[in-house]
Write a structure and sequence with these properties.
With about 375 residues, the chain is an alpha/beta fold. The chain is built from 14 helices and 16 strands. It has one domain: Rossmann fold. The strands form three sheets. Strands 2, 3, 4, 5, 10, 14, 15 and 16 form an eight-stranded mixed beta sheet that branches. Strands 1, 6, 7, 8 and 9 form a five-stranded antiparallel beta sheet that branches.
Length: about 375
């Protein structure tokens, strides 16, 4: 056991098993040992790679998307440009570089980053050096005003609860201790409330933390105008299944082995988040596949333009990145491409037109 596992085990020994939601919160956000408090997880030297790190094209297109949405909003002279979980700051840096095509957008943009990791904030400061940025530890302190909010691989890192259908009823999955005193999964007594699940052993997940954040953001957008663009891996329709996963050094890990040392995530339930947003009066576009979304924004044309000025080695790197980001089918040994696994959804104030990259009518796209 590492130090955090010992601390969690002592907590369980004293007070009893804890929910998976509580375990994930401690593993990711513990003030001393939490994964996002102490590690720099992104990149080849970290535990995983995100789309902005694969190639500049991704961030550039998101920047142009933001400019067009700002124009749809009537080009307000003051705009809150917000990113949730900005990683190394690469997405925002690439977005702002592309947005230089409209200097008025840059003049209007008041940049706010929501980041809980002090280690990542240090990296973001270096990446965005010279830019006026305000950091927030949560969405609670974001200022009022028209806003464009970007969230790339943010919601998958929020804690979830899991429930299991047993022969005696619905039970919550919890983290407890086995006979040797090690962390293990178990079930609470039957009696949890939730939707009926078809078969014994079926697992369904509830992302209450993600839904609460989405409702807060949707309320902001409805009352003050703007849009939220979220890009994440997950499923378009609510379903059953265990999607909890741990990753360390780009390889799968046991979620309970060494809390705080591996990234813990779960697939995003886009349908549940869409319901949360529409309940607050927002319009929802998508989800649609990342590949389709990027194609509609012009990633193939952008790749062709970059290759015209590239060396043969650079052109090959562009083709590789394009395949990972936007082409269907397995890429680089992965079981599924980012183009298919990752979904894109926009939450917008109800008076705005359909944002770029989506069908004209709100709702799910194939």
């Amino acid at each position: 056991m590492n130090a955090l596992a010992h601390e969690i085990a002592a907590m369980i020994a004293q007070d009893g098993p804890i929910s998976l939601e509580r375990f994930m919160t401690l593993a990711l956000q513990h003030p001393r040992y939490g994964y996002y408090r102490v590690r720099r997880p992104i990149g080849a030297a970290g535990d995983f790679v995100t789309a902005p790190e694969i190639h500049q094209m991704f961030g550039e297109l998101i920047g142009l998307w933001s400019v067009e949405v700002w124009q749809q909003m009537g080009e307000p002279s003051s705009l809150r440009l917000v990113e949730l979980g900005p990683g190394r700051g690469t997405l925002l840096a690439d977005s702002l570089r592309a947005a230089r095509l409209r200097p008025a957008f840059l003049q209007a943009a008041d940049i706010h980053l929501v980041e809980a990791s002090e280690a990542l904030i240090e990296v973001q400061r270096a990446t965005l050096k010279g830019l006026p940025v305000t950091w927030h530890s949560s969405i609670d302190t974001l200022p009022d005003g028209p806003a464009i909010i970007l969230a790339n691989e943010f919601f998958d890192a929020l804690p979830i609860r899991q429930y299991v259908q047993t022969e005696t009823g619905l039970c919550e999955r919890v983290v407890g201790l086995n006979a040797e005193g090690d962390l293990c999964f178990g079930l609470s007594p039957a009696g949890a409330s939730g939707p009926a699940v078809a078969s014994t052993g079926a697992i369904f997940e509830v992302g209450a933390a993600a839904q609460a954040i989405l409702r807060r953001l949707a309320t902001h957008l409805v009352s003050q105008a703007g849009a939220l663009l979220m890009i994440d891996y997950g499923y378009a329709q609510s379903g059953v299944g265990d999607t909890l996963q741990a990753v360390q050094n780009h390889e799968p890990d046991d979620p309970l082995r060494a809390p705080g040392e591996a990234d813990l995530t779960a697939h995003v339930d886009f349908a549940a988040l869409a319901r949360a947003a529409t309940a607050e009066g927002a319009a929802v576009y998508g989800p649609t596949g990342q590949g389709k979304f990027l194609a509609r924004l012009g990633i193939f044309e952008r790749a062709a333009a970059l290759k015209r000025k590239a060396t043969s080695q650079q052109a090959a790197a562009i083709d590789t990145a394009l395949a990972r980001l936007a082409l269907p089918g397995p890429q680089s040994g992965a079981k599924a491409s980012m183009a298919e696994l990752f979904k894109v959804m926009a939450i917008v104030s109800p008076d705005l037109a359909a944002p770029p990259g989506f069908d004209a009518s709100p709702g799910h796209e194939s």
